[in-house]
From TrEMBL:
PROSITE patterns: G_PROTEIN_RECEP_F1_1, G_PROTEIN_RECEP_F1_2. The lineage of its organism: Eukaryota, Metazoa, Chordata, Craniata, Vertebrata. It is found in: Cell membrane; Membrane. This is Olfactory receptor. It comes from Chelonia mydas. It is a multi-pass membrane protein.
Length: 251
């Protein structure tokens, strides 16, 4: 569990490193320009790290599934080497599917007035000033969402269905509640990540008449919410983390 938590923390830090410079530059120094190549680089890292975080949440759901549904084989199934291999596979998957996006955008011509709604570059936003047919980008972006975030969401839901099925078969209510309590932090992280993700995707693709302020708010919640809230949620729920934080604070 702590290996997965460290993976989640590293991913959240990566998202902050990829987005905070342009956000601070805008709000502190009124820096409102970014080169096209820098924008494409930020776009690549932001979307790659978003998909990696989705994968980490899926791995954490699998961790809870094994811990509750097959606890006696937990140590033999989730060995450190196997966890590392799964993490590497998901990192490579995320990088591989996002890698073509900057090159697909680079072949387009852009309007002279390239104004973005957000203080960071997102694929949906960068496509708006394009003065060419963006059907391929739209289809590929939707394909990425379905095979990564959509598939991860489906597997997380399936994991929790199996967890609920196992927990409800436990005769003791106290043991049932204790088993469910181990999933609370992960469920909070899942909701905090996926609800703004799907809301932002739907407003960009289908909410043509939606307020641009709503899109901006959702993008900030989506990018900055998990790195801010996840440490609080897991620190409050994990006795070992809470004790370590208190010990460090006292020192």
């Amino acid at each position: 569990m702590y290996i997965f938590l460290s993976m989640l923390a590293i991913t959240d830090l990566g998202l902050l490193i990829a987005t905070i410079p342009t956000i601070l530059g805008l709000f502190l120094f009124n820096s409102r320009e970014i080169s096209l190549n820098a924008c494409f680089a930020q776009l690549f890292f932001v979307h790659s790290l978003q998909l990696i975080e989705s994968s980490v949440l899926l791995l954490m759901a699998f961790d809870r599934f094994i811990a509750i549904c097959n606890p006696l084989r937990y140590a033999s199934i989730l060995t450190p080497s196997r966890v590392a291999k799964m993490g590497l596979v998901f990192v490579l998957r995320s990088v591989a599917v996002i890698f073509p996006l900057p090159f697909l955008l680079k072949r387009f011509r852009f309007f002279r007035a390239n104004v973005l709604s957000h203080s960071h570059c997102l694929h949906q936003e960068v496509m708006k000033p394009v003065c060419s047919d963006i059907t391929v980008n739209n289809i590929y972006g939707l394909f990425i969402t379905i095979v990564t975030v959509g598939l991860d969401t489906l597997l997380i839901i399936l994991s929790y269905v199996m967890i609920l099925k196992t927990v409800l078969s436990i005769a003791s209510p106290a043991k049932c509640l204790r088993a469910l309590n181990t999933c609370v932090s992960h469920l909070c992280a899942v909701l905090l990540f996926y609800v703004p993700e799907f809301s932002l995707t739907l407003t960009h693709r289908f909410g043509k008449g939606s307020s641009p302020w709503l899109q901006i708010l959702l993008s900030y919640i989506y990018l900055l919410g998990p790195p801010l809230i996840n440490p609080v949620v897991y620190s409050m729920k994990s006795e070992h983390l809470r004790a370590r934080i208190i010990r460090v604070s006292i020192k």
